[in-house]
Design goal:
heterotrimer, A: MetI-like fold, two-stranded antiparallel sheet, 14 helices, 2 strands, 1% strand, B: alpha/beta, D-Maltodextrin-Binding Protein, domain 2, 2 domains, 15 helices, 12 strands
C-alpha cells in the first residue's frame, strides 16, 4: 500500500530478486502488475472526485462559452445561432481591442512584480519567527481579507480622496494636496492591496520548506549573502514564486472593480471590457465577450503550462 | 505532535462558522438551503375591494432596482393582504434580463426600463396584463402611457421615471447652468478639473455630447459619432470619474461641484436619501437648453410566474396614489401617477415644478434612448473613449 | 534531516545576531502590515461615527450596530454567505488536496489535460464563469424538468457547487507547492516501520503538508466570502448573499452600517484566530 514514484517501483522490485533470471522476471512482472493496479486504484480515488466535479461544473459550462464565441449577437443582445468567426477576427484586427489586451497585461505584470517584491521579504520574515508567532502573523495577513473586498476598496477611497485622510494630513502639515484618487496609481495600490496575500501564502509555504542550512553551506563555500540568496534560495523557492505570481497575475488580468472604484472607471482593462460586453452594453454582446474571454484564457493557460513545465524541469 | 495542534486549529476555525450556520434557518427568512415551494394558499376574510383573497398566493417574488422602493410599502402590502413579498434587487437591466432569460428565475414581477420592456416582449419573457384587475390605471398621467416600447400598455405599466441632465452646486454656480457647454466647453473645464463626473453609461454620456453638438442622441451617423468621441476624449483629462452609482452622495458632500446625473440622484443629493445621508439644499438640477434624456421603469409580470393573480394585485397596489406618492417621495424619482403628485410632500412638489420633473415645455426637449442594430456603434465609441 | 529540526534552529541562529538585513526585514514587515490594516482601521473607526456619509468623524455612536441587528436582509445575507463559504471551503479543500496528491505523485496518461483543467478556473474571468454556469444551470434544470417534471430553481446549493469548482483549483495550486519539496523518505521510513498507507498518510504526510492545506483552505474561504459575480448569477430569489447585498448598497452610498457589518465579520475572524492560538498554546 506504499505510494511510490513510478520509477522507484522497478528498482524496489529488482532489488528483491536473487534467483534465476527467468524466475526473477516473473516475480518482477507479478509485483509490477499488482503495484500498477493498486497504484491505479489509489490514483483514481485521489483524482476522480475532484476531476469529475471540475468536468461537470466547470469544463462543461465553459463549452457553452466556447459555442457562444462562434455565433452572432442579435440586435437586442440575444443570441443568433449562426456560425461565424467574426468575433475573433474583430479582436485581432481592431486596435481598440488589441490595446485593451496590452494595457491589461502591462498593469498585471506591474502588480505581480510589486507583490513579489513586497511579499517575498514578508514571507521570509514570517518563516523566521517562532512557530506560534508564525501562525499568528500568517493569519494577520489574511484577516483583512475576511471583510468584503468592495468595502475595503471603499475605505481606500476615503483614504485617497481629495478631502480624504492623506490629503487632509498634507493640508494640515502645510503641503499642497495631490490628486491620488481616480488615477492609475490608485488602481495599482488597490490591485496590490487586493492580491498581496495570494502572493504571500504560496511564498510562505515554499520558504517554510527551504532548508536554511543551505545558506550557511553556501556562505562556507565563499558565496556572498546576495549570491547565496539569488543562486540558492530563489531557485529552491521557485515553486512558491511561480505559484504566487500565477495567483496574482491572473485575477488581476480579469479584474474590473478596482479600476472602476479607484481609477474612476476612466480606463477599461480586459476585465472591464468583458464585464461591459456581457452586462452593461446596449445591447450586450455575449459572443464578442465570450471570444475575448476565450482568447485571454488560452493565452494565460499556455503561459501557465509553459511556466510550470520550466519550474518542474528546474526542480529535478 | 504538531499536526494535532494544527488540526484543532483548523476545526476551531470552522466550528463557530458551522454553529452560526446551524442557527441560520431559525434566524431569518429566506435563507433555506433548498428552494421554497410556492403554494397558493387560501387566506383570510374576503374584502370589499374586489380582490379575491382565496386566490392570493402566500408569497410574491419581486425583483426590483436597488433602492427603488420605500421598504414600508412592502410591509403595508403584507399587512393588508397577508402576502409576504420576497424582495431582491439588481443594478442593471442586463443583469435582470440575463437571469430571466435563463428561465426558472423564480420571480413574479420585475421592473425593466423602456427599451428593456421591448426586449422582454420580443423574447416573450413577459405575459399580457389583465387590465380588469388594474383598477388604478386611470390615475396614471396620459403623458406616460402608450410610449413606443409598449404602445397599448399590454404588458407593462409605468412605475417611476427620470430625466438625465446636469446637477450642480448653486454655491459654485450662482448664475445657474443652462447648457451642456458647462461640461464640454474647454474654457469651462479647467475651473472644475477633478471636481465633476459623467455617467458611466455607454449611451447616456455619448448622448450628452451629441446633445451639445445639437444632434439626436439616437444618431448613428459615423462622422457625428466621431465628433462626439473627440469631445469626450478631450474632456477626459479634466474628469474626476465616470460614475453612475454614488453621484448623489458626492454631490451632497461637495466632492463634485457639477455632474452629469439622473434627476433622482440630484433630488437625493438635495433632500438626502431616507435616513442614510442628509441632503445639500444648494444642489440644483437642469435639463440643458440643448435637450436631455427621459427614461422610465415599468412593472411587468414574467411569463413563467405562477402567481399572476397576486402579481396583478400587487401592481394595482403600487398604483394607488397614496402608495405611489410614498414611494416617489422616498426614492426621489418621478411618479407617472398624476393623482399621486398632489399627495407628495410640499418640497418635492416644489422641486417637480422647478425642473426636477418634466412639464409640457420640457417634454419637447427630452428624448428617449432607443436601441437598434445600428446603435452597436455606441459600444465601439465608448470602448475607444475608455481606451485613451 | 527532519524538517521540524531546522525550523526550530534556524530562527534561533538568526535571532542571535542582529543583522542589518534582519532589522530592515522587520521594518518592511511592519510597513506591510500597516498597509494591510490602514483601510481596516478606517473602516472600524467609521463604523462608530455619527456622520451618515461614513467618511467623517462627527462623534461616537452605536446606532449603526443597532440598525444592523434590525436589518433582516443584511443579517440573513451574512448567514447565507458564511454557510456557503464554510461548506464550499470544506469540500473544495478535501477534493483539492486529494487532487494535488494525485498530480504530484503519479504519472498517467492525460496528465497534461488534467493539469490544464485544474488551472482553467484560475484563469477564467469570474463573469465568464458566472454566465457559463447560469446557462448550464438553465440547461440542466430544463432537462430535469423534462425528465421528472420537477421545477428547480437556483438557490444556495447552486452557488455552493459553483464555489467548490472555483475554489478547488486554488487549493490544488497551494497544496502542490508544499508537496513539491516533500521528503519522500519520511513516508518510506514510516512504511518500513510497518505503517500502512492510511497511517502513513495521517501520521506523516498530512502533518507535513498541513500548512499548505490550511493555506489553501483559507484562500478558498476568502475567495468564497468575496465572490460577487457568481453569487449574483447563481443565487435564487430570496437567498441573497452578503457581497451582492453590499455591492448594491455600497455603490450608491456606503453607510456606517456597512462598516459595522464588516467590523463584525472581522471581529469574528479575529476571535477564531485567537481561539485557535489559545488552543495551540494549551497543548
Amino acid at each position: 500500500m506504499r505510494l511510490y514514484w513510478p520509477s522507484e517501483q522497478g528498482s524496489a522490485a529488482s532489488s528483491s530478486c536473487k534467483r534465476t533470471k527467468e524466475e526473477c522476471r516473473l516475480a518482477f512482472d507479478l509485483i509490477e502488475r499488482t503495484r500498477v493496479q493498486r497504484d491505479r486504484r489509489n490514483l483514481m480515488a485521489l483524482l476522480l472526485p475532484g476531476l469529475l466535479w471540475l468536468l461537470l461544473f466547470f469544463a462543461l459550462p465553459l463549452l457553452i462559452i466556447l459555442l457562444y464565441s462562434f455565433i452572432v449577437s442579435g440586435p437586442r443582445g440575444n443570441l443568433i445561432w449562426q456560425a461565424t468567426v467574426g468575433n475573433y477576427t474583430d479582436l485581432f484586427t481592431r486596435a481598440i481591442y488589441l490595446n485593451a489586451y496590452l494595457r491589461s497585461i502591462w498593469i498585471s505584470l506591474l502588480t505581480t512584480l510589486i507583490c513579489l517584491l513586497l511579499g517575498y521579504p514578508l514571507a521570509l520574515f514570517i518563516v523566521r519567527q517562532p512557530p506560534h508567532v508564525r501562525t499568528l502573523l500568517l493569519f494577520l495577513v489574511l484577516i483583512p481579507f475576511w471583510t468584503n473586498f468592495l468595502v475595503r476598496i471603499y475605505a481606500w477611497q476615503i483614504i485617497l480622496a481629495n478631502n480624504g485622510l492623506i490629503n487632509s494630513s498634507l493640508r494640515a502639515l502645510g503641503f499642497a494636496p495631490i490628486q491620488l484618487l481616480n488615477t492609475e496609481g490608485a488602481t495599482l495600490i488597490g490591485l496590490v492591496y487586493g492580491d498581496l496575500p495570494f502572493m504571500v501564502l504560496p511564498l510562505y509555504a515554499a520558504i517554510d520548506r527551504f532548508d536554511f542550512t543551505l545558506m550557511e553551506a553556501a556562505a562556507d563555500l565563499g558565496a556572498s549573502r546576495r549570491q547565496a540568496f539569488l543562486r540558492v534560495m530563489v531557485p529552491l523557492t521557485m515553486p512558491g514564486i511561480v505559484a504566487g505570481s500565477v495567483l496574482v497575475f491572473i485575477p488581476t488580468l480579469g479584474q474590473f472593480v478596482v479600476s472602476e472604484l479607484l481609477g474612476g472607471a476612466k480606463v477599461d482593462y480586459l476585465g472591464n471590457l468583458i464585464q461591459r460586453l456581457f452586462l452593461r452594453s446596449n445591447p450586450p454582446n455575449w459572443p464578442l465577450g465570450s471570444a475575448m474571454a476565450i482568447v485571454m484564457m488560452l493565452l494565460l493557460l499556455a503561459f501557465i503550462l509553459w511556466y510550470f513545465r520550466i519550474s518542474r524541469e528546474e526542480d529535478r | 505532535m504538531n499536526w494535532t495542534r494544527r488540526t484543532i486549529l483548523l476545526f476551531a476555525m470552522l466550528l463557530p462558522l458551522l454553529v452560526a450556520c446551524g442557527n441560520s434557518s431559525t434566524d431569518s427568512p429566506g435563507n433555506e438551503y433548498g428552494s421554497a415551494p410556492v403554494a397558493e394558499s387560501p387566506a383570510a376574510a374576503p374584502a370589499s375591494d374586489g380582490v379575491d383573497r382565496t386566490k392570493l398566493a402566500s408569497e410574491l417574488y419581486f425583483y426590483n432596482w436597488s433602492d427603488y422602493i420605500d421598504p414600508e410599502t412592502l410591509e403595508l402590502f403584507e399587512q393588508e393582504y397577508g402576502v409576504r413579498v420576497i424582495y431582491d434587487t439588481y443594478d442593471a437591466n442586463e443583469d435582470m434580463i440575463a437571469k430571466v432569460r435563463a428561465g426558472n428565475s423564480g420571480y413574479d414581477i420585475v421592473v425593466p426600463s423602456d427599451y428593456a420592456v421591448q426586449t422582454m416582449v420580443d423574447e416573450e419573457l413577459v405575459q399580457p396584463l389583465d387590465k380588469s384587475l388594474l383598477t388604478n390605471l386611470g390615475a396614471m398621467s396620459q403623458n406616460y402611457l402608450g410610449i413606443y416600447f409598449d404602445p397599448e400598455n399590454r404588458y407593462s405599466v409605468p412605475y417611476l421615471l427620470g430625466l438625465t441632465g446636469i446637477a450642480y452646486n448653486r454655491e459654485f454656480f450662482p448664475n445657474g447652468v443652462d447648457s451642456w457647454s458647462a461640461l464640454f466647453d474647454p474654457a469651462n473645464l479647467s475651473a472644475i478639473q477633478g471636481k465633476f463626473s459623467m455617467l458611466e453609461d455607454e449611451r447616456e454620456t455619448p448622448g450628452a455630447a451629441l446633445k451639445f453638438l445639437g444632434q439626436s442622441l439616437n444618431t448613428t451617423d459615423p462622422a457625428t459619432l466621431r465628433q462626439a468621441q473627440d469631445l469626450l476624449i478631450a474632456q477626459k483629462p479634466f474628469l474626476s470619474a465616470y460614475n453612475s452609482s454614488d453621484v448623489n452622495r458626492k454631490l451632497a458632500s461637495g466632492e463634485y461641484l457639477i455632474a452629469h446625473a439622473w434627476s433622482g440622484q440630484a433630488m437625493q443629493a438635495r433632500n438626502g436619501l431616507g435616513d442614510e445621508f442628509s441632503g445639500n439644499p444648494a444642489i440644483d438640477f437642469v435639463i440643458p437648453k440643448e435637450g436631455g434624456t427621459i427614461w422610465m421603469d415599468n412593472l411587468v409580470i414574467l411569463n413563467d410566474s405562477p402567481n399572476a393573480y397576486t402579481a396583478h394585485v400587487f401592481i394595482n397596489f403600487l398604483m394607488r396614489p397614496e402608495i405611489a406618492a410614498r414611494n416617489a417621495g422616498y426614492v426621489g424619482y418621478i411618479t407617472p401617477n398624476a393623482a399621486a403628485v398632489p399627495l407628495l410632500p410640499q418640497e418635492v412638489q416644489d422641486l417637480y415644478a422647478a425642473g426636477f420633473a418634466p412639464n409640457e415645455e420640457l417634454l419637447k426637449r427630452l428624448e428617449w434612448i432607443e436601441r437598434s442594430a445600428e446603435t452597436v456603434a455606441f459600444t465601439d465609441l465608448w470602448t475607444a473613449v475608455k481606451g485613451e | 534531516m527532519s524538517q521540524t529540526a531546522n525550523r526550530v534552529t534556524t530562527p534561533a541562529i538568526e535571532r542571535g545576531r542582529l543583522t542589518w538585513s534582519g532589522v530592515s526585514l522587520s521594518l518592511h514587515a511592519v510597513l506591510i502590515y500597516l498597509f494591510l490594516y490602514l483601510p481596516i482601521l478606517v473602516l472600524i473607526i467609521f463604523s462608530f461615527t455619527r456622520d451618515a456619509f461614513g467618511v467623517r468623524w462627527t462623534g461616537f455612536t452605536l446606532d449603526w450596530y443597532v440598525r444592523l441587528f434590525n436589518d433582516e436582509r443584511l443579517m440573513g445575507a451574512s448567514v447565507n454567505t458564511l454557510l456557503v463559504a464554510s461548506v464550499s471551503t470544506l469540500v473544495s479543500t478535501i477534493l483539492g488536496t486529494l487532487m494535488a496528491m494525485a498530480m504530484e505523485r503519479y504519472q498517467f496518461r492525460g496528465r497534461e489535460g488534467v493539469e490544464a483543467l485544474i488551472y482553467l478556473p484560475v484563469v477564467v474571468p469570474e463573469i465568464v464563469m458566472a454566465v457559463a454556469l447560469l446557462a448550464f444551470s438553465a440547461l440542466v434544470f430544463d432537462l430535469i424538468n423534462a425528465l421528472t417534471g420537477q421545477v428547480l430553481r437556483r438557490n444556495l446549493t447552486t452557488v455552493t457547487i459553483a464555489h467548490i469548482a472555483f475554489n478547488m483549483s486554488f487549493v490544488v495550486v497551494v497544496v502542490r507547492t508544499s508537496l513539491r519539496h516533500f521528503d519522500r523518505r519520511l513516508e518510506e521510513a514510516a512504511a518500513d516501520l510497518g505503517a500502512d498507507s492510511w497511517q502513513t498518510f495521517w501520521r506523516v504526510t498530512f502533518p507535513l503538508i498541513l500548512p499548505g492545506i490550511i493555506g489553501g483552505a483559507l484562500m478558498a474561504f476568502t475567495l468564497s466570502l468575496d465572490d460577487f459575480v457568481i453569487s449574483l448569477f447563481l443565487s435564487g430569489p430570496g437567498t441573497s448573499l452578503l457581497p451582492v447585498e453590499v455591492y448594491s448598497r455600497v455603490r450608491r452610498a456606503i453607510t456606517p452600517e456597512i462598516n459595522a457589518i464588516s467590523t463584525l465579520m472581522l471581529l469574528l475572524s479575529i476571535t477564531l484566530v485567537l481561539l485557535s492560538q489559545l488552543l495551540q498554546r494549551r497543548r
